[in-house]
Amino acid sequence: MQIIVRAMVLFLFVWFVTRAMGRKELAELSSFELILLVAVGDLIQQGVTGDDRSVVGAMLAVTTFALLTVGLSYLQFKFSKLRPRLEGTPVIVVVHGELQNDALNVERLTADDVQDAAREQGIPDLAEIRMGILEADGKFSFLREDDVRKSPGTGELTT
User: Fold this and answer.
1) Which residues contact residue 102 at a Cβ distance below 8 angstroms, ignoring those fewer than 6 apart?
2) Which residues of 27-63 are buried (b: 16+ CB within 10 A; e: fewer)?
3) pLDDT digit string (tens) for 99-118?
4) Quick one: three-class SS letters along 61-93?
5) What distance in Å separates the CA atoms of residue 23 and residue 108, rounded to the nearest whole number?
6) What does residue 93 show for φ and ψ, rounded to 5 degrees?
7) For residues 136 and 81, what is the distance between their CA atoms, to the nearest angstrom?
8) How far apart are CA 85 and CA 69, in angstroms?
9) What is the 3-state secondary structure (H, E, C) of the chain?
10) Are 24 and 138 in contact, with CB atoms under 8 Å apart?
11) pTM (2 d.p.)
12) Is the Cα torsion angle 135, 138, 140, 141 positive or negative in sign?
């Protein structure tokens, strides 16, 4: 029972820490940060199982983490009002080529971060962006000013 309680406490702690770190940091891990995450995983394992090196102890810890992960997923699915708290919400960082500095400050992003992400998606100039969004998973989505789509069912072009 002690392993289950420790696993629950550390699961919630890791969830909180990853939410506090921010989206950008988790979406763009450097090799050093990846090594740190592996080390954190080892430290968590030691904290969860303590001196218990049994197979059953490890299975209890992994099962507890898995059940808590499924539980959070179910809560997000069943209760849409909890979803923003549990997984975050997209943030608009560019509107009609203009950086949204308040949003950048909250997300700890620089103009260079946004420009780099735009260039990775083939957009050389922020002026070409109608809307830039930092998604809940830390990735950027960009809509170009010249994006034209057909309105469903009408055949009319919309922007």
Assistant:
1) none
2) eeeeeeeeeeeeeeeeebeeebbeeeeeeebeebbee
3) 999 999 988 899 999 999 99
4) HHHHHHHHHHHHHHHHHHCCCCHHHHHCCCEEE
5) 10
6) -115, -15
7) 15
8) 15
9) CHHHHHHHHHHHHHHHHHHHHCHHHHHCCCHHHHHHHHHHHHHHHHHHHCCCCCHHHHHHHHHHHHHHHHHHHHHHHHCCCCHHHHHCCCEEEEECCEECHHHHHHHCCCHHHHHHHHHHCCCCCHHHEEEEEECCCCCEEEEECCCCEECCCCCCEEC
10) yes
11) 0.62
12) negative
Two tokens at 113?
């971060």
pLDDT of the chain, 159 residues: tens digit per residue: 788 888 888 888 888 877 776 665 556 666 666 777 777 778 777 778 777 777 777 788 888 888 888 888 888 888 888 888 877 889 999 999 999 999 999 888 999 999 999 999 999 999 999 999 998 878 899 999 887 554 555 555 555
